[in-house]
Amino acid sequence: PITVNGNGFKLTEVGPGVHLFNTIGETSLGDIHIVAGRLGFQGAVTMGDPNKTLTIESNAVLTLFTADVTKNLVLNGNATFDSGGNGNTFRGPVTLVGTSNLFGLRVALHLEGDISGAGSFVVGQSPVGAATAILYLDGNNTYTGSTTISNGYGITVGASSSLGSSSLIQVNSEATLDVSAPTSFNLGAGQTLIGAGTVVGGNVVFGTGSTLAPGFPDNNTYNLTMNGTLMLQAGCTNRVVVNKTSSVANDAVAGLTSVTMGGTLVINSVGNPLDNGDAIQLFFASSGYNGTFDQIIPATPGGGLVWDSSTLNSDGKLRVLRTGPPTNPTNIVFSVSGG
C-alpha cells in the first residue's frame, strides 16, 4: 500500500489540477499551504500534526471526501473548502482572514472547532459538483465578518454554538438557518439579519444595537420566515420597506409562534404616499403579539396622518390614521352670478 511520511515538513500545493491523499492513514505532515489547484483528503487519512496550520489562498481548493481530520485552518479570502463523499468533519479551529470564503457543500460538513477572524464566508455550491447540503457549527465562534447562506443551502447552529459576532447574516430565498438547538439565539450590537429564507425554531432575540431587516436592500418587498419566537428588545431596530401601489406591500416576518415588539421601527416607503386606512402587516404570529415599538421613524406617515398602533397586539399590523386635512388640499373656487 502507498504511504506518506512527511516527517513534519511543510507541504505546498501549487497546482494545477488535483492531488488527493486517499485512505493512506497517517501522513505526518507539518504546515500545509494550498497556493493554487486543489488538494484533497479522502477516507481514513490524517493531515499530519494537528497543531500545524493549513492555509488556503484565493481561488485554491481544499477537498474533504468522507474524512475526519484536524488542523488549524486559515481561509485567506476567496478560498474554497469543498465537502464531498458521504459527509465530513473538520475538528480544528478556523480563522477567516479575507472575504467571500466558500464552504462548497456537496454533502454535509461539521465544523467542530472555533471560527474566529474578521473575514466572511458563504455557504453554497462547490465548484467541484452541484448539490445542496448543510454546514453544522459546534464551536465557540467569535468571527465578525458576514455570513451568507445561498439558495437551497443551510446552516445548523449547535446547542453551545453561534454565528459569533457576524456583522451581516443573510438567509437567501430557499435557504435555512436552524437555531432550534441553542436555548436562545441572540444578536447583539452591530449585527444585522436580512433575507427571504427560513430561520428554524428557537428563541431569537435582537438586543441593543442589532437590526432585523427582512428582505434585501433593493426596495422590493419580501417575507422572512421565522418558525419560533421573536423578541425585539429596547435599543434594536426593525427596518421595513413599504411599497404602496394599488395596495400596500411590505417586508414582513411570517411563520412566528409569537413576537414581542420593542426598539425602533424604521419604515422606508418607496411607493405611493400612505393614506388613511392603509395597514402594514409587520408580523404573522400564531400565538400572540406583545409589546410596542419605542419609536417609529418617520414620526408620521405624512401630513395630517399618524401611526396607529392600536391593533399591533391583536393582528401585527401598523395602521395609518388621518387626524387632519391633507397637506395639500384642493382649492375650490365659487363663481356666483345672478340678476
Task: Considering the chains and any ligands shown, give keywords for the structure.
14-stranded mixed β-sheet; mainly beta; 339 residues; 45% strand
How does this structure look, described?
There is one protein chain. By secondary structure, this protein is mostly beta strands. 1% of the residues lie in helices and 45% in strands. It contains 1 helix and 36 strands. Strands 2, 4, 6, 9, 12, 15, 17, 19, 22, 24, 26, 27, 30 and 34 form a 14-stranded mixed sheet that branches. Strands 7, 10, 13, 16, 18, 20, 21, 23, 25, 28, 29, 32 and 33 form a 13-stranded parallel sheet that branches. The chain has a 6-stranded parallel sheet with strand order 1-3-5-8-11-14, with no helix packed on it. Strand 26 and strand 27 form a beta hairpin.
Oligomeric assembly: single chain
End-to-end distance, in Å?
120 Å
Class derived from helix and strand content: mainly beta
The count of β-strands is 36
* Rg measurement, Å: 26 Å
Uncertain parts: 329-336
Number of helices: 1
Amount of helix: under 10%
Approximate shape = elongated
Would you tell me the overall average pLDDT? 95
Beta percentage is 35-45%
Q: How would a crystallographer describe the biggest sheet?
A: 14 strands, mixed
